[in-house]
């Protein structure tokens, strides 16, 4: 950017950004849904109307086509307004300045932010409450916020451990069932071959850290009365997680490196990292990015803190929400409902790589028995469904999680890169979160 | 120069009927398209940013007029200060290196001793035609600590290359990208300026027995004074505005390159990740002010130097 502009202000930053941001890797994740037919709100789909729908999931376009075939009166204008944070930026701006869509894909972590600013509509008046039994508990818990229902779960990301069968086999190891075993295996793998690690940790991946805390039983973020935000990043869960990962990093048994970069994918394809703790959306990404290593991957439950128990968490996943200022809210709600409950739709979404949020698809034989090519043909959906059933209850995101996640790299990520205590990193993160909460007019609760 | 600018006029021509009104109108007419775009694309957004910077828009509580409070907060903001210091260091080290290389290249092309001067000139200039984001991505790919080209080449030669995206190397790696991008651009400005040096001076110098190096030191570099000042000022502005390169490399080194690495990145992240448009606007204004002061100081000192010569 040197010399190109002779204009004195920082306005340029505002103009130069979208391209850079679009290119910046936002590692967001897809997944899916399933269910039974939506009986209610069908009338809303009889009047001719055009709905604009923002979504970046590749599985959406074919599903939207199916909708238009069965609902000839409704036109869906599908727009890819960028992935994850890119879309939220545009969405928040469009809600203020105009040009917002009727329906939008919003990840669970970002949904509370749009609820707080009243930019997404409560779907309770459109019969949403009746659909609760169709969804997995953990999916529903992420759209039911402050007594309202602010979206339909499109896909989820139950946390599992993907691992390289070739690496473990060569060393005669079983995939670790507990974090203690994980740490022991980490030492063995790195000792056998110093170019290999049990895994990598991404200094920008706030979502990954949130999932680890969640899986350790933590509930670091609390919002009460919509205006008091309490952040506790030094509880028992935080201590357990940071003690383990600080040690792994300091012993150089995990590699600290940015994820989703060309360098990282090459290492993933080459078997440099023996495990990848991620959501059930990962096989789709393995298939499209490192297909040469498909035969070597398999899925297992995420390692446990206590042997013999099973506690899991979510990692990623999206909802479909109706924007509060849409002039066609009823039709938009009916469309969102069709997209995430109608069997035609949920099966199409699942077939296109999203992990289902509806129990109908999740428990179907066809789904459970499907063999996943990206995981060496393993019937891995059973592993994923099992994880989904064991997601710890009670997790909440901050009403400004998008901002909090954006400064994760400055604090926790910095500690990871520097090899210092991650607990201190979490403390620095909390400090930033509390400062921001204060600036934005929240009461900051004592943890 | 100013003596030459005054057109030669036959005596009495000013008394003609077509006095100054019509040419002045004509001038305004010619000027108006520029002025319209300038007002729309520069003046209005700056004024809007100033307006924004006087408010605070909060998630809880909405928009409130706060006067200059955002500026007070920004002046005490350690993240903004750290960013300014970082671009300051960048300015002091990268700019002299880049301009030195550009000067050498311009003198080399101008010396007439190169076999294919046009190829050399275009080759150096091409990086400037590569969009900054693409350049940063490309270099970022080469910097990769495991499979990056530089690391791999080092490994082939048995040399241990440092992690170019670590905290001790990141700023130098960014400087390398901007140098690569802008040496050709600056070379072209300097080379163009060299074309205006009167040839008689070279002939006279040659008569006195001066070689190419002597000519460069005694005629060309002094003749490039104004062009060098221009490139220096462009570079100062560019350094303070540093954004694309660190922003792209941040995805590769998020634990090293923070969201407030440069003042522009800080303003950007506050505005778009934090929705703090009003505070970001005040940071933008402060950054603009600092840039203007530094650039103006350099210009003033250079001009004073010229006058006292």
Characterization of this structure:
The complex is a heterodimer of chains A (447) and B (309). Helices cover 41% and strands 15% of the residues of chain A. By secondary structure, chain A is α/β, with parallel strands linked by helices. Chain A folds into two domains: 25-156 and 316-371, D-Maltodextrin-Binding Protein, domain 2; 158-314 and 395-444, D-Maltodextrin-Binding Protein, domain 2 (3-Layer(aba) Sandwich). The longest helix of chain A is centred in the C-terminal third of the chain and has 18 residues, at 422-439. Chain B is mainly alpha-helical. In chain B, 71% of the residues lie in helices and 3% in strands. Chain B contains 14 helices and two strands. Chain B has helices spanning 2-5, 21-52, 69-75, 78-110, 117-129, 132-143, 149-156, 170-194, 199-207, 212-223, 225-240, 244-250, 263-272, 277-308; strands at 55-58, 62-65. A two-stranded antiparallel ribbon of chain B has the order 1-2. Chain B starts with a helix and ends with a helix. Residues 1-8 and 10-16 of chain B have low confidence and may be disordered. The chains are: A alpha/beta (447), B mainly alpha (309). Chains A and B meet through helix 1, helix 3, helix 10, helix 17 and helix 18 of A and helix 2, helix 6, helix 8, helix 11 and helix 12 of B.
């Amino acid at each position: 950017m040197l010399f190109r502009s002779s204009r004195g202000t920082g306005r340029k930053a505002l103009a130069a950004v979208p391209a850079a941001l679009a290119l910046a890797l936002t590692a967001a994740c897809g997944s899916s849904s399933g269910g039974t037919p939506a009986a209610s709100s069908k009338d809303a789909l009889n009047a001719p109307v055009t709905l604009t729908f923002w979504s970046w999931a590749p599985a959406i376009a074919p599903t939207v086509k199916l909708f238009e075939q069965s609902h000839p009166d409704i036109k869906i204008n599908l727009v890819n307004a960028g992935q994850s944070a890119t879309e939220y930026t545009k969405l928040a701006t469009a809600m203020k300045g105009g040009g917002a869509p009727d329906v939008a894909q919003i990840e669970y972590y970002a949904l509370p932010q749009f609820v707080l600013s009243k930019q997404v509509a409560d779907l309770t008046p459109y019969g949403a409450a009746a659909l609760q039994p169709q969804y997995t508990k953990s999916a529903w818990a992420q759209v039911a916020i402050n007594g309202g229902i602010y979206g339909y779960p499109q896909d989820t990301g139950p946390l599992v451990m993907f691992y390289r069968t070739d690496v473990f086999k060569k060393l005669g190891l079983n995939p670790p069932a507990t974090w203690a075993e994980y740490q022991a295996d980490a030492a063995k793998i790195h000792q056998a071959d110093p170019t290999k690690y049990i895994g990598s940790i991404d200094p920008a991946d706030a979502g990954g850290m949130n999932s680890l805390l969640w899986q350790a039983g933590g509930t670091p973020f609390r919002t009460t009365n919509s205006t008091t935000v309490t952040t506790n990043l030094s509880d028992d869960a935080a201590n357990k997680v940071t003690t383990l990962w600080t040690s792994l990093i300091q012993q150089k048994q995990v590699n600290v490196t940015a994820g989703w970069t060309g360098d990282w994918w090459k290492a993933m394809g080459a078997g440099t990292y023996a495990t990848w703790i991620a959501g059930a959306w990962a096989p789709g990404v393995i298939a499209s990015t490192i297909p040469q290593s498909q035969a070597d991957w398999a899925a297992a439950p995420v390692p446990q803190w206590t042997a013999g128990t099973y506690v899991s968490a979510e990692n990623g996943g999206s909802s479909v929400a109706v924007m509060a200022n849409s002039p066609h809210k009823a039709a938009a709600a009916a469309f969102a409902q069709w997209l995430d409950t109608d069997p035609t739709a949920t099966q199409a979404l699942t077939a296109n790589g999203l992990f289902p949020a509806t129990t109908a698809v999740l428990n179907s034989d066809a789904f459970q028995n499907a063999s996943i090519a990206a995981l060496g043909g393993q019937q891995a959906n059973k592993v994923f469904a099992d994880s989904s059933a064991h997601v710890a209850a009670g997790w909440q995101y901050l009403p400004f999680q998008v901002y909090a996640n954006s400064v994760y790299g400055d604090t926790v990520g910095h500690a990871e890169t520097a090899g210092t205590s991650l607990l201190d990193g979490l403390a620095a993160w909390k400090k930033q979160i509390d400062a921001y909460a204060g600036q934005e007019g929240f009461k900051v609760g004592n943890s | 120069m100013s003596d030459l600018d005054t057109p030669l006029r036959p005596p009495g021509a000013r008394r003609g009927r077509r006095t100054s009104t019509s040419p002045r109108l004509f001038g305004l007419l010619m000027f108006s398209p520029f002025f319209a775009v300038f007002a729309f694309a520069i003046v209005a957004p700056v004024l809007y940013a100033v307006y924004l910077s006087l408010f605070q828009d909060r998630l809880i509580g909405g928009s409130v007029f706060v006067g200059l409070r955002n500026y007070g907060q920004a002046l005490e903001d350690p993240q903004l200060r750290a960013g300014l210091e970082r671009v300051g260091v960048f300015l002091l080290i990268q700019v002299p290196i880049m301009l030195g290389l550009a000067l050498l290249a311009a003198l080399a092309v101008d010396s007439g001793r190169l076999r294919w001067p046009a190829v050399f000139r275009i080759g150096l200039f091409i990086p400037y035609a590569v969009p900054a984001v693409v350049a940063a991505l490309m270099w970022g790919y080469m910097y990769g600590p495991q499979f990056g080209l530089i690391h791999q080449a080092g490994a082939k030669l048995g040399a241990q290359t440092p992690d170019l995206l670590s905290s001790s190397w990141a700023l130098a790696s960014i400087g390398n990208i901007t140098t690569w991008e802008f040496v050709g651009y600056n070379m072209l400005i300097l080379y163009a300026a060299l074309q205006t040096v009167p040839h008689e001076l070279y002939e006279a110098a040659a008569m006195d027995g001066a070689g190419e190096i002597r000519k460069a030191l005694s005629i060309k570099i002094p003749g490039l004074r104004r062009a060098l000042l221009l490139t220096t000022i462009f570079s100062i502005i560019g350094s303070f505005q540093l954004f694309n390169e660190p922003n792209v490399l941040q995805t590769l080194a998020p634990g090293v390159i923070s969201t407030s690495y440069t003042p522009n990145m800080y303003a950007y992240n506050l505005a778009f990740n934090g929705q703090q448009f009003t505070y970001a606007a005040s940071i933008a204004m402060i950054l603009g002010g600092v840039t203007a002061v530094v650039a103006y100081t350099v210009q003033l000192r250079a001009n004073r130097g010229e006058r006292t010569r």
